[in-house]
Amino acid sequence: MAIRCPRCAREYDVTLFQFGRTVDCACGERVGLTLEVRLPDDADEPRFLCDAMLGRLGRWLRALGYDAEDAGADRDGALVRRAVRERRLLLTRDRKLARAWRVDVVVLVAGQTPAQQLRDAVERFGLDCRARLFTRCMLCNVALEPTRAQEVADRIPPGVPDTQPALARCPSCDRVYWEGRHTARMRRWLARHLGGGDVSGPEGY
Hints:
16% strand, 27% helix, three-stranded antiparallel β-sheet, alpha/beta
């Protein structure tokens, strides 16, 4: 099967266009097929893959409780294939990538700063800024689990059990989380840039 350039009618083997890849024809036209990916049925919980230029956006998405993986240094083709395979939205600042791959999960992020990028993501995907706040590990992207102070006593400051009734632990990296000054600063940052006053999370942690 061949794909024909709409301008000059030159034909290309269809295998060139796997995962939505496009090619530049000698006539100057970009040739390709648009790949539509069936995302998870639960539209309220989109899953993200953030390219190397959007690491800070990924951290803030995880702070909001959303599944946001960091892509690391993978090449464009590997990023797209992973996004398609895992049915994730690939967030990128790379215009060349967005132009070269016609895949509906590739999303070009226009914002220049993490605040602009997060605000755009919240508005574009209808993200809930409160329901899942601080329920995911900022490093591993794994859902946190409740834990008791006596189980993690060797990993928290002495005064924490007396002031923080709710503790959470990452089952992957074993990092312990609680409501502290850093969390308060993050809440203020979110309130300042997303609006709506105080950003309060769910009960407990």
